[in-house]
Design brief:
heterodimer; A: mainly alpha; B: alpha/beta; 4-stranded antiparallel sheet; 13 strands; about 30% helix
Chain lengths: ~300, ~375
């Protein structure tokens, strides 16, 4: 790998005894993540906090907060900064409560996909042979379906017959499970490719030569090296999943109205986008900005770990 | 996982009751073959030797002659596309047929290995200290504090300054020589009885090579540990080993006590290796004697002597018949050659070839001053 440049540099900076210089040089070399990354982190943190503390915030009831005096009002209506929808519910309030469902689904399904896909990918990449063939075939079969079609099918299969009667939590769980299953092969393949590369490194052989068991080598030697790649893909996947939830909502298969999610807020206006434009614009902008922020952070995570490998 | 106690494989107990005067490692007719699409690669082809406690054997040969594969074959650290035959006895127990999940009980505690490239044999995301403590903790079930103390002592004993601070550092913060010291500390952590050093200095700066070799030798003496030193450099093993086995095309072509090998070199390949080392007494810019040609294809090794195609002594007999590994003139000094260097038969063969201008394989040879040049026509 690119590490070959390292010994000369490290060797030049330090004779056997002057290790402190190396450390000092490294600190100044540490790549800053930059102002945009901090803005992205801040924005996501704000969204998460708003979603968590929605019940405590001084905002209107998102479902039964009918304000018949202001129906379909636009931006900056007194008392409704972001306007209202056709029942007079406050858009800001619905967007914040909707963040709960959307972020929960986004994070939950990616965590689910990362755990299962990551585990399968790690085993496949590390063990190789038949294990790898079987697991990779499983990934490929799942990848062969278009994501949206697969998610739609899974939601319908997993939903109880009277799907609209299921509670909010139940519904969120179903969507998390469906979208999570869709994300398994994506995360799994990335993990497998990385685990495969790292498993062939000499330190893995060195650990075995010290008598470490396969599981120990896999979890202690290979996994920590694979995590950065997994993390960066997982962040990108959260963005994809938020969009996928919106797509499911358009088919009426996400959180059922009147409970808000970003997806179903957009869906509710799809037949008549001009009547209350803020209702679909606000969640669209929220999806756009969070997806951008997550994508950017995914890249930052990746490049941050790349640096360690190559250009010290 | 590691906490699950299995019944240890026979002979893998820390303090076995094997007699201390018996030989520690006895390998007999070991053959290692790789299954490839082209056919079986005979990487190691019938190697035998014995190693006693506290002794060192050097395994020498050029790239691709099977020396690394041999040391990995003995440890059982081979990929799955490999077939291994022959007997490997460790403290009198046959370990040649032990499954690799049983061999784990030997690895680290009984035998362990220092790898060639310290740049890639340390885990980049784990602190040095943890990497040393790792095997201590899963082999001996010791407390964290005890493991930490041991790791510190090990780091100090391999000559790493400010060992306490280094324990908390990552591999990329250390230079190549330092990392190889850490690798040695890791390999020594569980007190192995044999240390395999697989070209331990090849990837290092020449200025630290001697330091690392001295360290290995010092540790080997202090711990009364046997060592198998694999290298392509005869200069590395000279004066550091008790015995040397010179390998060519997967076979041992000469095996002798170190002093005897250098003083009474018998095999033309060993002679050629010695001649290819630059000497301080040579004027600068003098040409080194390279060995013409390349090692034979290990999928279809030649019929007779494997070295014949590159050997200035080669006679027709060498092409049809493979010489056996025997010690006819000096006891303990075995070699595989019909026309050994320094013998009457050898001198005759060389004179005949020089007169003809080529060997039995058609390799051009000529004399230039004191040197015999092969592979170059005038």
């Amino acid at each position: 790998m690119l590490e070959s440049a390292e010994p000369q540099l490290a060797g030049a900076a330090s004779g056997p005894l002057s290790g402190t210089e190396v450390v000092a040089a490294e600190k100044s070399h540490k790549k800053r993540i930059g102002i945009i990354a901090w803005i992205a982190i801040g924005w996501l943190a704000l969204l998460v906090l708003l979603a968590i503390f929605a019940p405590l915030l001084p905002i209107k009831d998102p479902i039964n907060g009918y304000d018949y005096l202001h129906i379909k009002s636009g931006l900056f209506t007194p008392g409704h900064i972001l306007g209202t929808d056709d029942s007079g519910n406050d858009v800001l309030s619905r967007a914040i409560w909707g963040a709960q469902a959307s972020l929960l689904i986004g994070v939950g399904s990616v965590v689910f996909g990362t755990l299962i896909g990551g585990f399968l990918g790690l085993v496949a990449g590390f063990k190789g042979g038949t294990t790898d063939t079987v697991i990779s075939a499983f990934f490929n079969i799942f990848l062969a379906f278009p994501q949206l079609v697969l998610a739609l099918t899974l939601v319908s299969v997993l939903s109880p017959a009277a799907s609209n009667s299921a509670g909010w939590g139940h519904r969120v769980a179903i969507v998390i499970l469906a979208v999570g299953i869709v994300s398994i092969p994506i995360l799994g393949r990335i993990t497998r490719a990385n685990a495969l590369a790292w498993s062939q490194r000499e330190f893995v052989m060195a650990a075995r030569a010290q008598g470490a068991s396969d599981w120990r080598v896999m979890l202690r030697e290979v996994l920590p090296n694979v995590v950065p790649a997994m993390l960066s893909i997982a962040l990108l996947s959260v963005a994809v999943v938020i969009v996928l939830e919106g797509a499911l909502a358009i088919f009426g298969l996400s959180i059922p109205a009147p409970s808000p999610s970003w997806g179903n807020m957009i869906e509710s206006q799809i037949s008549n986008p001009n009547s209350a434009p803020t209702v679909w614009m606000v969640p669209s902008v929220l999806i756009l900005t969070s997806v951008l922020a997550l994508n950017y952070l995914g890249d930052v995570v990746r490049s941050k770990f790349d640096v360690r490998e190559s250009a010290i | 996982m590691s906490r699950r106690k299995r019944a240890p494989a026979p002979g893998s107990e820390r303090f076995s009751d094997a007699p201390l005067d018996g030989s520690l490692l006895e390998i007999n007719d070991v053959k290692t073959q790789f299954k490839t699409p082209r056919g079986l690669v005979h990487a190691v082809d019938g190697v035998s030797f014995t190693l006693e406690r506290g002794k060192t054997i050097g395994i020498v040969g050029e790239s691709g002659c099977g020396k690394s594969v041999l040391s990995r074959s003995i440890m059982g650290l081979l990929p799955s596309n490999v077939v291994r035959h022959g007997s490997i006895k460790f403290e009198g127990h046959e370990i040649g047929n032990v499954a690799s999940n049983e061999m784990r009980h030997y690895w680290g505690t009984q035998m362990s290995m220092v790898f060639q490239d310290p740049m890639t044999s340390l885990n980049p995301v784990m602190r040095i200290g943890n990497q040393i403590m790792e095997s201590l903790r899963f082999h001996f079930d010791v407390t964290k504090e005890y493991a930490e103390e041991t790791a510190l002592a090990l780091l100090q004993s391999v000559g790493i300054p400010e060992a306490e601070r280094r324990l908390r550092e990552y591999p990329h913060q250390l230079s190549g020589g330092m990392r190889q010291r850490v690798m040695i500390a890791i390999a020594l952590a569980c007190g192995p009885k044999i240390l395999f050093a697989d070209e331990p200095t090849t990837a290092l700066d020449v200025t630290v090579q001697a330091q690392i070799l001295d360290l290995l030798q010092e540790q080997q003496r202090e711990r009364f540990m046997a060592m198998v030193l694999v290298t392509h450099d005869l200069g590395v093993v000279a004066g550091r080993t008790d015995d040397i086995a010179v390998m060519y095309a997967g076979r041992v072509v000469e095996r002798a006590p170190t002093r005897s090998l250098f003083e009474h070199t018998r095999h033309p390949y060993t002679e050629a290796l010695l001649k290819s080392i630059p000497k301080l007494s040579m004027p600068s810019h003098s040409k080194l004697d390279a060995i013409a040609g390349r090692p034979p294809d290990l999928v279809k090794p030649p019929l007779g002597c494997k070295f014949a195609a590159r050997c200035p002594y080669a006679q027709p007999k060498c092409l049809s018949e493979e010489p056996p590994l025997v010690d006819p003139d000096i006891p303990g000094h075995a070699y595989r050659c019909f026309f050994p260097v320094g013998s009457a038969a050898g001198n005759d063969a060389l004179t005949r070839n020089l007169a003809a201008g080529e060997t039995a394989t058609g390799l051009p040879v000529r004399r230039e001053g004191d040197a015999v040049l092969t592979g170059v026509t005038a």
